[in-house]
Every structure is written in structure tokens, then in C-alpha cells.
Amino acid sequence: MKPPLRIAILECDTPLDQTRGKYGGYGGVFKALLEAGADALGQPDLISSKKGLELTTWDVEKAETYPPLSDIDAILITGSRNNAFDNKPWIIKLVDFVKKILAQDRIRVVGVCFGHQIVGRAMGVKVDRSDAGWETAVTPVDLTEKGKELFRQSSL
């Protein structure tokens, strides 16, 4: 992908008051992170928070709006306090949208928490409640041999 890199942030929930007050919504959270990441690349003539990065937000939970596929290069699916395995109409619509994206090879997909579960569900993976209960925040992950090779450490 060459700049401009057009990323659609699919908002699947509204964050808690403190986060909403600072960023406006999950779209604002991820815009801040993606812009900081682009700036950290140190290539301001190519891509930065000011150039080469086009971020849009889409309310897929309440407004159920989606970007035209011709207008995006990637999607980021946010977290949510909803269950990715529920059959609420907006979740079914989101899963169907992700299936359409996974069926092609141009648009890239990133899912965060609930979002990665939606990606799994769109791929036909069984998504269900954890026997260990609800997980939130930072959780240590022991890496497989391939993960150790990729990240050059044994855990994240």
C-alpha cells in the first residue's frame, strides 16, 4: 500500500466517560495511536499524522454505517463490551461486512479485542465465553516458537 493509507475505524461501542471526555470515542483513541505511530516512523514526507494517513470513523453499532470498499485500504475494528458471539442485528451485519473484506486480498483487517473475535467469527471460528471469565486490560501472553522468532522474546 502506498500513501495515502486510508484506514476506516469501525466503532463497536462507546468508551467510558473518562476516555470519551479525552478522545470523543474509540475512533479518537485509535486515531491518536495511529497518528503517533505514523509520526514515529520518521518519514514525514511520506506518512505522518499530517500527511499520507487518512483516518475515518464509522459507527457500526448504533448508526450501522460502513465505508465503501473502494474508499479504504484497511479497517480497524474496535473493542466493545458486547459479546462477539451474540446475534444482535448490528453484530451479524458487522460479521457479514468482515466476511466480504476477507474474501478479497486488497483491504487489510485489524481487530482489537471484540474486533479480533469478530474477525475469527467471520472466518468461521467458534467464538464463545471464556471459562476463566471476562478478561480486560493487559494480560501476559506466552509465545509459541514462531511468536518467539517474530517478536524476539518469549512473552508479551
UniProtKB/TrEMBL annotation:
Which Pfam families does the record associate with it? GATase
Glutamine amidotransferase domain location, by residue? 53-151
Domain of life the protein comes from: Eukaryota
Q: What is this protein called?
A: Glutamine amidotransferase domain-containing protein
